[in-house]
UniProtKB/TrEMBL annotation:
Residues 10-192 form the Cytochrome b561 bacterial/Ni-hydrogenase domain. This is Cytochrome b561. PANTHER family: CYTOCHROME B561, CYTOCHROME B561 BACTERIAL_NI-HYDROGENASE DOMAIN-CONTAINING PROTEIN. Signal peptide: none annotated. The chain crosses the membrane at residues 16-38, 50-72, 92-111, 118-138, 158-180. Its main location: membrane. Keywords: Cell membrane, Electron transport, Heme, Iron, Membrane, Metal-binding, Transmembrane, Transmembrane helix, Transport. One of its GO terms (cellular component) is plasma membrane.
Length: 194
């Protein structure tokens, strides 16, 4: 299997980055909902679930950086036949997915009030205790509370609870529509080499 994309298929690097990211989104959601629904406050399980959420999210940030670089270096395979509207919607959807892969980890990190214990291997300092926040706080005369509240709201209540779900659901439904109804190669470009 070639590493790079061809005009017919995504290459193995794009495929790995895509499916690993999809699995990590699932894991980020599963860990945070597990925390809310199945654990009590201030228990070890509650803390572990939070730390796993943070760790999965940080991993997504690293992967999306590699993915954007790889995407710039590699043309995507040609689109399957379709109307201008369909092609435009697919492009817009993919851009929006790239945007949430960046915005979710950034808002999550900036708004988190604890250090990230990355898979319990090493610590990543919370933003409040960094030199960058000290600079922001003195330059703009803003407290951490005032700084993080809108980011936290965006992360949890607007994007996390709604927009990300809608985008992913729309994306998956589009893939299934192509595969089972239009019966074209859209899904196979991301799964096979044939
Ligand atoms: C793409 C990655 C991410 C996704 C999809 C995501 C999604 C979510 C969702 C759905 C929630 C729960 C909203 C609710 O209260 O119902 C949440 C909460 C939270 N996220 Fe993220 N997040 C991501 C990355 C991150 C990162 C990188 C951090 C920090 C390093 C982070 C920190 C938090 C924190 C502190 C909470 C509150 C936890 C809680 O109330 O239990 N997230 N996130
Ligand atoms: C079961 C879940 C998923 C399925 C079945 C799926 C399927 C696909 C397929 C078939 C393509 C190729 C579309 C084309 O070339 O026109 C694609 C591309 C893409 N997917 Fe997914 N996907 C899933 C989950 C996700 C998730 C969770 C994200 C990100 C949050 C995501 C982000 C993307 C992006 C950004 C592209 C465009 C890649 C590029 O050309 O640069 N996908 N996906």
């Amino acid at each position: 299997m070639g590493l790079k994309n061809t005009s017919n298929n995504y290459g193995s690097i794009a495929k790995w980055l895509h499916w690993l990211t999809a699995a990590l989104f699932f894991a980020a959601y599963a860990s945070v909902y597990f925390r809310h629904w199945f654990t009590e406050r201030d228990t070890p399980a509650n803390w572990t679930a939070l730390q796993l959420h943070l760790s999965f999210g940080v991993t997504i940030a690293v992967l999306v950086t590699l993915r954007i670089i790889w995407r710039i270096m590699n043309q995507a395979p040609a689109q399957e036949p379709g109307s201008k509207l369909e092609h435009g919607a697919a492009h817009a959807g993919h851009y929006a997915l790239y945007a949430i892969m960046v915005i979710m980890p950034v808002t999550g990190y900036l708004g988190t009030k604890v250090d990230t214990e990355y898979f319990f291997l090493f610590d990543i300092a919370m933003f409040e205790s960094t030199a960058m926040f000290a600079w922001i706080s003195t330059t703009f005369n803003i407290s951490y509370q005032a700084f993080e509240a809108p980011l936290d709201y965006l992360h949890k209540n607007i994007l996390g609870a709604w927009l990300v779900w809608i985008l992913i659901l729309g994306h998956v439904l589009a893939a299934l529509y192509h595969h089972f109804i239009k019966q074209d190669r859209t899904l196979r470009k991301m799964t096979t080499n044939k």
